[in-house]
Structures are given as C-alpha cells and as structure tokens.
Amino acid sequence: LSGMEIRLINAMSRESVLRTYIHAVKPHYDYILIDCMPSLGMMPINSLAAADSVIIPSQPSYLSAKGLDLLMQSIAKVKRQINPKLKIDGILFTMVDSRTNEAKEIIASLRAHYGEKIRVFGTEIPFSVRAAETSGRGKSIFAHDKNGKVAAAYRSLTKEVLELERKTERFRDDAAR
Q: How far apart are CA 73 and CA 98, in angstroms?
C-alpha cells in the first residue's frame, strides 16, 4: 500500500480510491483487513474512508501515545467529511514489554484517558523477537511461531473482536424488531 501513496498525489477524489476497490471485492469476503503504516498520509486516509471500522494499534511509548491523539483527530475528520459510518472498534496495545514501568504507566494512562469513550482491548500483544523476525521472513506469526506468546495473543484478540461483532449484530437485530 505504501507504493500507492505517490500515485494518489494527482488522483481525482484521491481520498476514495481505495474505497472504490474495496467495494468491488467486498461481496467475495467476510472480512477485509487493511494494515497501514503509522503515518497520517494519503493511504491511512484512504483506508479510513474505505473501512467500516478501525482497530487502532498503539505501542505503550510516549511518542506512540502522542501519535494516538493525532490519529484520533484524523479519524474524527474522516468520519465528519468522508465516511460518516466509520466506527472505532478499539485501541490495541502492541509490542508490549510488560516488564517495564513505562509500558505499565502509559497503558494505565491511556486506558483511563480513552477507556470511557472507546473500547481498549483487554488483549495486549507482547513484544517478541520471534514476532519481529516475521517481516524479514515474509511469514505470518502463525506460520513462523504458531505456539508462541504473540500468536496466542492474536488468537485472543480474534476472539475479542468476534465477540464484539456478535454483540453489534445482536444490537442491530434488536433495533430492527
């Protein structure tokens, strides 16, 4: 996706290019996941314009916490101007080294700051050298270290997200009655 960023500079309706493609293939999939680089460029904007919902990954570090505020502003702007149906499913802490006080303090602070308005997933993705190796090897964590702590955390997150979806569907069904 990062290669598309340059091509979008001169594109007409550049905020909705990805949405056009997604809508064309959406009937063939149950889920479409879009993984963006941590930037506020055109690809993340396109992704938010195309998405039904967003899971916001954040590392428990000072700079990531600052970036989270900027991302929240971008999401609000996209929701107001481009994609009014966009919703935030939650904030997911990633690369968590729970041995450090800084990580514990930042997680507690962000849970307190955002937790009343936005779901903060109970699952935290731990830092792992094995997980860092996956990018260089071109494999998923499940192919590289399926029994490791990161794969287990992603399985837990999947269960949490599916439960969130079930609750949303039940709410929609009840509202339709």
A: 28
The identity of residue 125, as a single letter, is I
Our CA angle for 35, 145, 34, nearest 5°, is 10
**Region class of 100: left (phi > 0), else alpha (psi between -120 and 50), else beta:** beta
pLDDT of residue 115: 86
> Is residue 25, in this structure, part of any structural domain at all?
no
Residue ranges of alpha helices (H) inside the chain are: 4-8, 17-25, 42-50, 62-81, 101-114, 129-137, 141-145, 149-176
Residues in the chain predicted with pLDDT less than 70, given as ranges, are 1-3, 5-12, 171-173, 175-177
User: Is 69 contained in some domain?
Assistant: yes
- What's the whole-model pTM score? 0.84
Compute the distance between CA of residue 48 and CA of residue 26 in angstroms, rounded to an integer: 15
Domain count for the chain, please give it. 1
Cα end-to-end span (Å), the chain = 41
Residue type present at position 164: L
Cβ of 134: how many Cβ atoms within 10 Å? 18
Return the structure tokens found at 77.
Answer: 């702007």
Is residue 157 in a domain? no
Q: For residue 9, is it within any domain? A: no
Residue ranges making up the domain that contains 107: 52-133
